[in-house]
Amino acid sequence: MALQAGIVGLPNVGKSTLFNALTAAGAEAANYPFCTIEPNVGILVVPDARLDQILSVIPSKQVLPAAVEVVDIAGLVRGASQGEGLGNQFLAHIREVDAILHVVRCFDDSNVVHVDGGVNPDRDIDTIDTELILADLATMQKRIDRYAKAARTGDKEQLGQLGVAERIAALLNTGKNARSGDWTPEERLVLRDCQLLTSKPVLYVCNVSESGLGEGDNAYVAAVRERARHEGAGIVVLCAKVEGEISELPEADRAEFLRDMGIAEPGLGLLARETYRLLGLQTYFTAGPKEIRAWTISVGMRAPQAAAVIHTDFERGFVKAEVYGVHDLLKAGSEAALRAQGKLRVEGKEYVVRDGDVMHFRFNV
User: In terms of pTM, does the model score above 0.90?
Assistant: First the structure.
């Protein structure tokens, strides 16, 4: 799946530090604005205990987890919608991603400058939102002009789209995001065609200090959590600096480090799963002696489309899919036992794949 999540936020909130940790891509992290000029693209691995569970029953040479693409986009500043701080370039990068990971600074540190003089999550989020809304208003005005011109010829379809565009613009003019609107399915088609920045789903990532881990929400995080609740957005709390330290440790030393820090798992694991959910993704597995692999598909995909993620020939010549659940595999102890117990199902073209299915495809081309 070629879906991407983009990391956005003000300068010096910890975006590139977080990106370095989650992708090990080596993006430059520095204490000044615009240290990231071109968007860096990396891979965020999605931790999944079910892979090891499958491996415990089906020996395999390698295990390949699911992953999502993450783009580190340079920090926005006030006035970006008018081109301030290379804003037009950065807004274009946001337009290309499918979801937004909005990193919010939730820590105090006099050694790390803040572009607006002090930490204030509500204000910082408003700054980003305002620039995205202003950019979307400019987009909608161009759409309205185009639809109005076409509607003057009597084109009923264009007249209908003009009405939707005007309603979208009216919402944006109130300072609200496009995603907050109550749109009909037909209106959502117009909204999607407009590719608005504020129509993208958002996950707030609260970057706290090392001392703030495991102590409950500080006042900054509490403010973001309340805002996320009001907006129906997700939220993840982590310390980008600590995540970077964890990512540099040998695998064998990480569990002890986590215990010493008083945290159950790296924040990146939760971030990966929440990003997956935000993008509307789920996982199915294939398993054999050569590899056990997690495959990424959109929620609601049918079996032939899921097979196409492996190879387009699988969809073109799809015959059937043999399907079972990880829990049933663990309980039976082997695929042969599953067959003998009648718990290996045969599904056809209309089968909607479930998260966690283990699948063997039969095809003929």
Answer: no
